[in-house]
């Protein structure tokens, strides 16, 4: 996991250590650093998660625009809420395809995770709680049809939108929808079409 120190942050954000301390301790814009012994034996060093650097850049930019502390908090809270809605789980045993799709959705503002089989899909759906699952029908072990039925029959995961994709034409769209899928795409699938549907689901959760 990538990490940064206070010194790293102050190199790229023109603030003082006191300001950084206020943002951390008083305003809770990010967590306290994890303290560890200096690798060179020179005392103790505090390490922040790498995202703290971007958070500091954002807070500084908002202050430059005239945002008050309460306005910044509201802005950051709204961003976190939007991120929680824009969570997507991509399930496909074609690893190269899955990673390409993951990177594509992350570039378009989604928080994405992947699974490569039906069992892992069910576990990650329960833990990650995505708003949307892109699910391949032809999975090893528990296939996509069974994953759909399991997710839709579980009250905890029944509201997750499921977009099924498949290059196997043995199952009709009706059969796949009856298993619980909200939308069905055949492979090869256009990434922009998937993104459009996912954006619509996020902006209008009642859409089917």
Assign the CATH superfamily of the largest domain.
Answer: Response regulator
The second-level CATH architecture of the largest domain is 3-Layer(aba) Sandwich
Which structural class best describes the helix and strand composition?
alpha/beta
Low-confidence stretches: none
| Sheet with most strands: strand arrangement | 5-4-6-7-8
Could you state the order of secondary-structure elements as H and E?
EHHEEHHEHEHEHEHEH
CATH fold field value of the largest domain: Rossmann fold
First-last Cα distance: 38 Å
- Number of domains in the coordinates? 2
Number of strands: 8
DSSP helical segment count: 9
Strand content: 15-25%
Radius of gyration: 21 Å
Major β-sheet profile: 5 strands, parallel
Quaternary structure? single chain
Could you estimate the helical fraction of the residues in percent?
Answer: 40-55%
List keywords for this structure.
about 210 residues, about 50% helix, single chain, 8 strands, five-stranded parallel β-sheet, Rossmann fold, alpha/beta
Quick overview of this protein structure:
The protein is α/β, with parallel strands linked by helices.
Characterization of this structure:
It is a single chain. This protein is an alpha/beta fold and 208 residues long. Strands 5-4-6-7-8 form a 5-stranded parallel β-sheet, sandwiched between helices. The protein has helices at 6-12, 17-26, 51-64, 69-85, 95-107, 118-128, 144-153, 173-178, 191-203; strands at 3-4, 34-37, 44-49, 87-91, 111-115, 132-136, 161-166, 183-186. The protein has 2 domains: 3-82; 86-203, Rossmann fold. The chain has 9 helices and 8 strands. The chain is 49% helix and 18% strand.
